[in-house]
Amino acid sequence: MTAAGPSRVTIRTARPEDIPAVHEIYSESVRNGTGTFAEDVPTFEEMTEIVRDIQNSKWPFIVAELPHVAESREDGSTPGDTLVIVGYAYVAQFRMRSAYRYCCEDSVYISPSARGQGVGASLMDRLIHEAKACGFLSILAVIGDSRNQGSIQLHRKFGFRDVGVFKEVGLKFGQWLDVVMMQLDVQGSEEKKQELRQSA
């Protein structure tokens, strides 16, 4: 299943052949960003295991593609546009203890060259829909660095509310970093929560 979003963004379920691009995007964030507190780039095998574990749990792991215009051949002809993976997103149960089974945490990563083109919004729109389809009632965003306004504003755009800040809990690049906590209760979750509470 694919879906088109702004700026000709295509969103689809990740496939095994997408893992090199996913690994490259995340590695760039580890090396240069504060959105993740990871300091060591994962191996390709570790990234493969992450994707496999998410999908084996029947949770969404999706990628975003944008058209890339290839350079002209020597004879002057062009091979046409090719789709390039420029971002990815997934959700996983927030904590693995069973009582957390209706609550998930999202992760969204976008290539620096693709930011500002609607990629994040396209990923988030699809991710929320798929998280709800999985039965999750709450989606949490655990955002590294309170200066990460791109991620914070993206989540606010989709209705996430601020629920707290952990002050200076991460040290990366010689800086103490906050963690911003945000939460979205998916549509209809209050009624479902009441139903589940009564049946517990």
From TrEMBL:
Molecular function terms from GO: acyltransferase activity, transferring groups other than amino-acyl groups
Domain of life: Eukaryota
Gene3D superfamilies: 3.40.630.30
Domain N-acetyltransferase: residue ranges: 9-187
Entry coiled-coil feature ranges: none
Pfam family, one: Acetyltransf_1
Keywords: Transferase
PANTHER family for this protein: ACYLTRANSFERASE FABY-RELATED, N-ACETYLTRANSFERASE
Protein name in the entry: Putative acetyltransferase
Species in which this protein is naturally found: Kockovaella imperatae
Taxon lineage: Eukaryota, Fungi, Dikarya, Basidiomycota, Agaricomycotina
